Amino acid sequence: MGSHGSQAERSPLLKLIMSCRFKLSRITHAPMKASGCTSMVLRSLLSTAAAAALLAGSDAAMAQAAPQAVPPAAIPTVVVDDSAQASPAAPVYGTGAESGTTTLNREAVQDRAPGSGDVNSILRIVPTVQFSNSAGNASRDSLQDLRPSTVSISGGSVNENLFILDGVGVNSYMYDEDAGAGDFTGVGVAAASAQTHWVDASLVGELTVIDSNVSARYGDFTGGVVDIRTRAPSHTFGFETYYGLTSDSMAEYRVSDLAREAIGSGAMPGTPEFEKERFGFSVDLPVSERLRLLAAYNQTNATVTNFPGNNYLSYGSFGLRSRGENYLLKAEYDLASTVTLTGQVSYAPYESQARQTNTAYDNLITSNGGGLTTKIGLDGNRGVAAWSLDLSYANTDNTRDAPWGTFNISTSAPGMAGCSATSSCTIGSAGDFIQEQDVTSLQGEWEQPLGFGNLSAGFEISNVKAHRERQQELISHLSSNISPNTVCTTGESLACRNGSYALTTQLRYGAFDARAEINAYALWAEYQFDLAGFDVRGGLRYDHEDFLDNHNIAPRLSVSRDLPWAGINLTAGLNRYYGRSFVGYALREGAGVTRTYSRAVTVVGTERRWSDNWVLTNHTDSNRYSGLGLDTPYSDEATVALTGPIAWIGGQYRIKGIIREGRDLIASSARTTEVYDRETGTTATRSVYTATNDGERSYKGLSLEYTRPIGDDHAISLSTNFSHTDATNLSYFEMSDEVELSGRMVYYNGQVVDLLVAVADNQLQDLASPFILNADWSARWLDGRVRTNLNARYRDGYERVADTGVNTSVGGVTYDVYGKVPIGDSVDVNLSVDAEIARTAYGTVSLDARVNNLFNTILNDDYVSPTQPYQLGRNVWVSVKFRY
């Protein structure tokens, strides 16, 4: 920034301050060291105390700001007690080279966290973060789902963000979209997600999102960066625990007009029945002056009443449960006054139950998610340099546990009457399935003053192993042969009952074991310096991995200057971001093989004897996938930002424009065919899909943000975003529009046109509202004994060109009529109240209420489901907390 002054004006202390900008979010949690400047300066700038300084009107408290010419006396030495209540915490906006950064400290996170503890939901305060229009749907699956919200940042795909949990990347290299819970094909499981691990909001110490102007230290994304830091162990003993709940009795339901029209004169389905609970505890154990420990556990449960398929209603309702857990053990040990050893283990298993659709019993499926992350690291100072070295490991467990195979039995067979309301009864499920990912990483960083500026550099070495396997054939038994003379020569089972029936056909879904491995290497460097009053941050990032086998160089450039008017800082940036590899195509190899077997009866006298004399009668290998030889997807970005104070009303503002152009994104080829040899001695034709770089994505956005304290007990934040997002495909397994739509003629605007022309200017249908308006008000009452937060988000409606459902004839040819179809707007207001009801020498007890959708609005006017039409209206989480 221009206020740096000349090199002659820089004191050694200022150089020291510049060196302390290294790994801001990590060092913010480091303990104070008498002889090390890094933690002292950064904690004073970015800690709770600094956030309070911002809310008191300090213009210099902008988070992660570029270095300023601050006199030494203006740098306070503070000791931060993170448990102490400060002024209402607002989002802290980055400026200069960090103009794309927004940070929320622990209090800001706690005030805005929903009752479910979902950290991603807190990002609604950032205007460049978009959420799904379906977030308020109250289908039974949605109510049971405890995974974090999916988000799009700066127009990026929900699968292309970079999630970091305590310095460990927690991102899937194989997830594209949910598979069905009872999927037989082997394409995936139901509980996976793009973000492989997550934590409860009660454990978060700092939450940072970067939507633009991203430092070269970050790679493997084309969307945004979400950096989640769990809180550090305290220097004093402490204990916290809580219990919260919600249920259908604490919720109201709404139905859109479109859903009512779809139901018509029929009876409305019953409203969903559910219960959710969330509880946990944490303990801070300062073992000695040098060693500090944090141990924590959290659990969230959801139980939803479900119903069998129409043919099995006589079995009655049943409850299905999802459960998410967090086990956290974290340690800090001061090896010396300038070196800290850190280590942690975080285990976050997730499981979700489902039942195989339209089966009678033996059909419970448990899909798993989450997994284990571990990290050990060193952080230190050497003279004016700051450095770190981290070794981490992350295991993602997406296995499925379910009964092996199904049996379809005629209800005419003796003993099978009443098993189903139709002519046959199916028993069983889709079997076990393994899907795992292991990532081991070594990262190092170094930062120090050098020459006329500050040098940062680092490396990362990673090994990724992905694994998808069905360990044995999954068999579906079919075709009942009914006879009282049936004899099962190999013993009775559901496939054969003496004196009743035998199933004569098997569909065997093949066992397979698909694996992929990536060895990745990254080097990056940045140099930040003053050039004639301009603060320049130039960086390069080099990435190579042996799966796609590409060498990628991503330049990052940011130039900022303090303008001579009203404390305004102007920043411009040009950046390239490369995405990570996707192994989903490789892991589909081998899946899709199905063999049909049949068996014949052996008649001995009056006995009809059935043995395991199965004979192969058919073999199909339906699809083939290939995903090698691709370029790495990338996104080019241009951004401009203005930040500064507003003198006449107070507070801080940020105006930011972002343009992104994503190219070489992964998409499917058009279907081709090939002839293959069947195991039965014949030939057949199968479909072949190849991964391509045909995908494209574009984003143009303008955001305005403002935050201001009002007195000592109130803070407001306002923000808005105008944007346009379009993409050629949403899934890696979808064809790009150019491939899929080109050549298909439709009737639009009074003429016959290519469908690709008709939809050329379409905004994405979901996660891409063209106008967002946020408002947020945090307050403290009764000397801080009561804390409240009121936040609101308005999502604007818009029109898309889509099939109207009408056909017309032109020149004797029938065409689909395309026109503009409206997408409705919505307003979502949420209220949180945390009130102390008892404060004693033995601890503090508080009551917490989180009211979602305060004004009971319909959040998705376009949601239509005749069988599950409901959306959540006003709903409440209530919790009781104890803190010592």
Architecture overview:
- The protein has one domain: Maltoporin, Chain A, CATH 2.40.170.20.
- It contains 10 helices and 48 strands.
- The strands form 6 sheets. It has a 22-stranded antiparallel β-barrel. Strands 18, 19, 22, 24, 25, 30 and 33 form a 7-stranded mixed beta sheet that branches.
- Helix 3 packs across helix 4.
- The radius of gyration is 30 Å and the shape is globular.
What separation lies between the terminal Cα atoms? 44 Å
CATH architecture descriptor name: Beta Barrel
CATH class: Mainly Beta
* Biggest sheet overview: 22 strands, antiparallel, barrel
Mean of residue pLDDT?
89
What is the number of E strands? 48
Structural class: mainly beta
Give the total of domains. Answer: 1
Percent helix: under 10%
Task: Kindly report the CATH topology.
Answer: Maltoporin, Chain A
Strand content: over 45%
Number of helices: 10
Report the principal-axis shape. Answer: globular
Q: Unreliable stretches, pLDDT < 50, 5 or more residues?
A: 1-85
Rg computed from alpha carbons, rounded to a whole number of angstroms: 30 Å
Q: What is the name of the CATH superfamily? A: TonB-dependent receptor, beta-barrel domain
